[in-house]
Design goal:
Helix content: 40-55%
Strand order of the largest sheet: 2-1-3-4-5
Shape: flat
Oligomer: single chain
CATH topology of the largest domain: Rossmann fold
Bound molecules: adenosine-5'-triphosphate, magnesium ion
Low-confidence stretches: none
Structural class: alpha/beta
Number of strands: 14
Largest sheet: 5 strands, parallel
CATH superfamily of the largest domain: P-loop containing nucleotide triphosphate hydrolases
Strand content: 5-15%
């Protein structure tokens, strides 16, 4: 079965005999495995590769078995853990299970028992993967658990059950198109086309023909008749991206279609009834544009019956690592490699960066890192320099002014090698004030030896 290949087993045992028995059983059944004889090695394997099942002796010599189980539970919550022991004591068994092991086998091992325990865990793994898949289908491939993204998913569900026009607002790369597709495919229109159109890409001279189609010979060069976007999207959804860039002419035409629910094909006197839902998206401040007279107010209200705002990534920091993980799994499959591990520093930098290009920027970065950094560990030094810089100089919106002042004074003092006169000059305060601040913030005053 396919899962045999995708389930990876780590065997930890310092007894050669048991190790051989376990590995030969796994090998005979076609499982992929790594075998080690110490906890230290096991931790390295766990940190650098993906493991689904660990079969570990509880008494491996370099760490107490229980501590190792606790370590695995704390750091790799999805692992299946099967423990083995020579010491058939019920108290031990209870403790091992309490710490998070999933099963317990008594040595000397019996091949059949071992295999059936492994198969049980395999079934659990398959079930868990199915559940994960189903959950991700329910969220329409939109990854994230932050309040911001859960709110968006709720709105998608509401929007899918109505037929009203939807406006999706959000910065570039936040996932607006993903949201538009999700609404379409969750709606009754799913079997009909979803037609994405970028409003900036329609040449003004062909506007009407592109939107409504034309008949043969409608204008010079129109040798054949052609369907417009509204006809292509009939019964389905027309997704007008970058609606904030729609020209005044286009705005006028859209308004008429929405009001009359019919279009006139270029070169024909025929009007055609249409049944197309319109979802629009923009990264511009449309209300501001309406106030400035750059966007028609009447059209705005027609488009924004349902208003969905996709928050920027920096406002849902909880999603950053989940998304990074998701993209890593996505790209690693193409590269046929084990996923690398990010160091704590690198993860911290990812979390603290402002992501002006939002999810798209994160997706591109992960792809680039996987290709450029061939090593199994990705560290801060592998990240682009602008990200490292931002980490060192991050501005946490929850910090107090005093905190920031103290940090700034520290970094200026570092720059001047502790010279207070120069530091005070840079800071634009006198030495006395600087001394007071050093005291206030408990910054060691190197010159006076405090
Ligand atoms: N929550 C998410 N989960 C998974 N992938 C996401 C998520 N948000 C965005 N993406 C991915 O990020 C990329 C950018 O998303 P999308 O094109 O939908 O953004 P956009 O808001 O339309 O951007 P733009 O304003 O630049 O057109 C896509 O590859 C998309 O699949
Ligand atoms: Mg887009």
């Amino acid at each position: 079965m396919k899962i045999h290949k995708t389930m990876r087993v780590l065997v930890v045992d310092n007894c050669r005999e048991s190790l051989n028995l376990i590995t030969s059983t796994l090998e005979a059944s076609g499982f992929q495995f790594t075998a080690v004889t110490s906890v230290a090695e096991a931790i390295r394997v766990l940190e650098f590769t993906r493991v689904d099942l660990v079969i570990s002796e509880t008494m491996v010599h370099d760490m107490k078995g229980l501590d190792f189980i606790r370590y695995m539970r704390d750091n790799f919550s999805d692992l299946e853990i099967l423990t083995t022991t020579f010491n058939p004591c019920i108290d031990d068994a209870i403790r091992v299970i309490k710490e998070g092991a999933n099963d317990y086998l008594i040595k000397p091992l019996n091949v059949d028992q071992l295999l059936s325990a492994v198969m049980r865990m395999k079934s659990k793994l398959i079930r868990r993967r199915q559940i994960q898949e189903e959950t991700s289908r329910k969220s329409y491939g939109i990854i994230g658990e932050s309040a911001g993204i859960t709110g968006v998913i709720d709105n998608i569900e509401k929007a899918a059950s109505y037929n009203a026009n939807v406006l999706i607002r959000g910065e570039s790369g936040t996932g607006k198109e993903l949201v538009a597709r999700a609404i379409h495919y969750a709606s009754e229109r799913a079997a009909s086309p979803f037609v994405p159109v970028n409003c900036t890409a329609i040449p003004e001279s062909l506007l009407e023909s592109e939107l409504f189609g034309h008949v043969r010979g409608a204008f010079t060069g129109a040798r054949d008749g052609r369907a417009g976007f509204f006809q292509i999207a009939e019964g389905g959804t027309l997704f007008l991206d970058e609606i904030g860039d729609a020209s005044p002419a286009m705005q006028g035409k859209l308004l008429r279609v929405i009001e009359n629910k019919e279009i006139q094909i270029v070169g024909s006197s025929r009007v055609q009834k249409i049944n197309t839902r319109i979802i629009t998206a923009t990264n511009k401040d449309l209300i501001f544009m309406v106030q400035k007279g750059l966007f028609r107010e009447d059209l705005y209200y027609r488009l924004v019956v349902i208003d969905i705002v996709v928050p920027p990534l920096r406002e849902r920091k909880e999603d950053i690592l989940t998304l990074a993980h998701h993209f890593m799994n996505k790209f690693i499959k193409e590269l046929r490699r084990d996923p690398p591990r990010f160091t704590d520093g690198a993860l911290e930098a990812l979390k603290n960066y402002r992501w002006p290009g939002n999810v798209r920027e994160l997706e591109n970065l992960i792809q680039r890192l996987l290709v450029i950094v061939g090593r199994p560990v990705i560290d801060v030094a592998d990240l682009p320099s602008y990200m490292r810089f931002q980490m060192e100089h991050r501005v946490d919106p929850m910090r107090t002014l005093a905190d920031m002042e103290a940090e700034h004074i520290r970094s200026v003092l570092q720059l001047t090698g502790g010279n207070k006169t120069r530091a005070a000059n840079i800071l634009g305060i006198d030495r006395k004030t600087l001394r007071e601040k050093l005291k206030k913030y408990c910054i060691p005053d190197k010159e006076s030896g405090n």
